[in-house]
Structure formats: C-alpha cells, structure tokens
Specification:
Keywords: Membrane, Transmembrane, Transmembrane helix. The chain is mainly alpha-helical. It contains nine helices and two strands. The longest helix has 30 residues.
C-alpha cells in the first residue's frame, strides 16, 4: 500500500506533476501560436467583425498567461512572493474557465432566444459558477517551501468546491445546449453545432472528471493538482476550435 503522505512519495509525485505540466504547457503554446492566423484574419478585415471574437481572444490570452505563470512558478529556484504568484495563477485560470463557459452560454442565448426560463437558468448557472471561482481565489494561500525549493499550496483540496461547481455548471450548460440543438438538426448549422456539442461533452468529461475525483480522494498535494491545468488547456483548445469551426461554416454559408 502506497503511503501518499510519505515525503519521498510526495517528492516523486511533485516531479511527475512538473513534467506533466511542462508537456501540457508546451502543447498549448504550440496550439496557440499555430492558430494566430484566425485573430489576424479579423485584424486584416478578411472576416466580418463579430463582438464575440473578443471573448474568444480573451479566453486564449488568459490561458496563455496561466501557462506562462505555470512555467515561472515551477521553474524558479529562488524564493518569491508565493501568494502573489498563486493569485496570478488562479486569476488567469479562472478567467479562462469563465470566458470559455461564456462562449458556450452565448450559443445557448442564440439557440433559446425565445425561452426566458431557459436563458435565466443558464445565465444563473454561469454566474453561480463565477461566484465559486472568485471565492476560490479569495480563500487560497501558498508559501515557499525551502526543502522543495518552490511554492506550495496550503490545503490544495480547498479548490474542491469550485471544481465541483465548474463540473456541474458545464454539464448543465452542455445539456441545455444539446437539448436546443436537437430541435434544429434539420438545418446544416444545427447539425454542425450538435456534433460540436457532443465533442465538447466528451472533452469536458475527460478534462473535468480526473481533477474532480482526485480532489475528493485527497491523496496528497501534487495529486490534487495533477490534472487541474490539463482540464483548463483541454477546455480552451476545444471551445476555441469549435468557435473557429462555426465561424468558418457561417462564412461558407454566406
């Protein structure tokens, strides 16, 4: 039986977490810069202006800033202000999560524009999740561990509530979106959105279930954080790719 609180086990898990984060961060940096042509096409006027492009671009930017914050925090070897670093880490991550969910909410508004009850429930769900994310930033704390030579979160399982809220909120918004799209499957755009919704459902499940389960198991600090960043990266890459696909389909129809 593995003792996950043994210092040697924690150190090995921390090394695994660091490697895992570097791989995920590298993949996102590649994805981000290899798709900059999309934003550039709006700057050059090659695509019609849509205000939602700001939500799209802000989601990508917030995620990129989180990746850079990750790389700084897990590679620095001198004592830093860990609380400031942690605030930067959480604010960028949760901003990206909130904006990514907002892109989904905008689709729901377009699909259910005539049903105020569905719109009210969806907006309320998004705002509730946002409140949990803000709460998590307020209660979080970290300190510099001289033995490990890096910043360490105090009671990393504190983010369990907001992870649960995010998981439930995204599941609800997905179901609402898919229910609305079921009524529009006779149209090409409706079929496209429905298929994208299924992709999002699969990606959200893959991204959110592991951190959700591990936080409740609470094995140790590194395991509590193991899949937190990957869930953000998967969410961002999925929702932004779907946005680009929808934009291309609209342009094709026009």
């Amino acid at each position: 039986m593995v003792n996950y609180h043994d210092p040697s086990v924690i150190l090995a898990d921390l090394r695994a977490l660091t490697r895992f984060l570097h791989v995920g961060d590298g993949v996102y940096i590649w994805d981000c810069f290899s798709t900059l042509w999309f934003e550039w096409s709006f700057v050059k006027g090659e695509q019609p202006y849509r205000w939602s492009i700001w939500v799209y671009a802000s989601t990508r930017l917030a995620t990129l800033l989180n990746v850079l914050t990750n790389l700084i925090g897990f590679n620095v070897r001198k004592s830093i202000n860990c609380q400031l670093w942690l605030y930067s880490e959480f604010i960028t991550a949760y901003t990206a999560f909130a904006l990514g969910s907002l892109l989904m909410l905008l689709r729901i508004v377009a699909i259910w524009s005539t049903n105020k009850w569905v719109l009210g429930a969806s907006i309320g769900t998004w705002l509730t999740n946002l409140a949990f994310l803000i709460r998590s930033v307020v209660i979080t704390s970290a300190h510099w561990d001289h033995t490990l030579g890096m910043c360490v979160l105090d009671e990393s399982q504190r983010s369990r509530d907001n992870t649960t809220a995010t998981f439930c909120a995204e599941a609800f918004l997905l179901l609402v979106m898919l229910a609305g799209l079921m009524r529009q499957r006779d149209h090409y755009l409706g079929r496209l959105l429905f298929n994208q919704g299924l992709i999002w459902l699969i990606a959200a499940t893959i991204a959110e279930v592991p951190p959700f389960v591990l936080l409740f198991l609470n094995l140790n600090g590194p395991w509590n954080l193991m899949f937190q960043t990957s869930s953000l990266l998967i969410m961002t890459m999925c929702v932004t790719r779907m946005y680009r696909g929808l934009s291309a389909s609209r342009d094709h129809q026009q």
